[in-house]
Amino acid sequence: MFPDSLNLSIRGPVNDFIQALVSGYGWVFKAISAVILKAVLFIEWILRGLPWWVVILIFMALAWQSSKRWTLTVAVGVLLFFVGVLGLWDLTMQTLALMLMATIVSVVIGVPMGIFVAKSRTVRSITLPVLDVMQTMPSFVYLIPALMLFGLGKVPAILATIIYAVPPLIRLTDLGIRQVDHEVVEAATAFGGSPNQILFGVELPLATPTIMAGLNQTIMMALSMVVVASMIGARGLGEQVLNGIQTLDVGKGLEAGIGIVILAIVLDRITQGFGKSRTEDPRNG
Questions:
Q1: What's an example of a GO molecular-function annotation for this chain (predicted)?
Q2: CA–CA separation, 80 vs 248, rounded Å?
C-alpha cells in the first residue's frame, strides 16, 4: 500500500479556487451566461420557427453547394425527412441549436488560437500539452465547474461542449498554417505583402481544407457531448436518450440515438464536402 504520509490532494485548492470565482466574479459569469443564452435561444427560435420543409431545403442546398452531387443532396433530404417521421424534429432542432452555438464559439476561439500557436514556438510548446489534457480528460469532468459557475441549463452544457470540442480545431488550424509552402510565403513577402496580407491572402486560403477538417472534428465531438450535456439540463435528443436510460425504454433511446447519428452524418458530409471542394479547386494549384 502506498504510504498515506506521501499523499497529496489537489481537491481542496481546486474547490477553493472555483468557490472564489463564484463568490468574487459571479456577476461576470452571469453576464456571459445571459449573452450565450440569448444567442442560443435566438438560433433555436429560428430553427423551430421555420417550416420543416424549409430547413430540409436549406440543408439540401448546403449539401449541393459543398459537393455538387445530387446523390448526397437527395440523401440529406431523405435523412432529415426520416428524422421528422420518427417524431424527433423539434428535439433535433433543439440539439442543432446547441451544437451550432458551441461550434460558432469554438470557431471564434479555435481559429485565432490556432493561428497564434502556428506563429509562435513558445506558445505552441505551452498550448499542445494543455490541448492533450483537454482531449484526454473524461468529458464528465467538464460538467462540474460549468455547473458550479453557470448553474443548470443550456449555457453550462454549451461551455462544457466547447472545452471538449475546440482542441481539434486549434490543432488542425495550427497544422494547416504550418504546412503552407514556404516558397509561396516567401514569394508573397518578396512582392511586398505585409504579414496580415500574407496571412489572410495566402496562408489561410491554402490552409482552408485542413481547417475545415478541424471544424468537422469539432462538430463530431460536439455531437458526442449531446447525451452528457443533457445531464445538466440541455434539452434535445440527448435528453431523450437519458430518459430512455432512466426508464429502461430501449425504443426511446434507440430512436433518439438514430436522430443523433443522422444529424452527425448530415453535418459530417456537408463539412467534408466543403473541405474537398476547396482542395479540388483548380485555383489552389
A1: amine transmembrane transporter activity
A2: 27
CB 135 within 8 A of CB 167: yes
Q: What is the total residue count of the chain?
A: 285
User: What pLDDT digit, counting tens, does each position of 224-276 carry?
Assistant: 888 788 888 788 888 888 888 888 889 999 999 999 999 999 999 998 888 77
The secondary structure of 152-189 as a DSSP string is SSHHHHHHHHHHHHHHHHHHHHHHHHHTS-HHHHHHHH
Report d(CA 94, CA 234) in Å as an integer. Answer: 9
CA distance linking residue 89 with residue 81, whole number of Å: 9
pTM of the model: 0.86
- Domains in the chain: ranges and CATH: 14-284 (1.10.3720.10)
Q: Grid coordinates representing 277? A: 471542394
Question: What pLDDT shows up at residue 285?
Answer: 43
CA dist., res. 233 & res. 156, Å (int): 9
- Ranking 45-54, 76-85, 103-112, 130-139 by mean pLDDT, the lowest is 130-139
CA distances for 245 relative to 212, 239, 254, angstroms: 34, 10, 10
For the chain, how far is it from start to end, CA to CA, in angstroms?
63
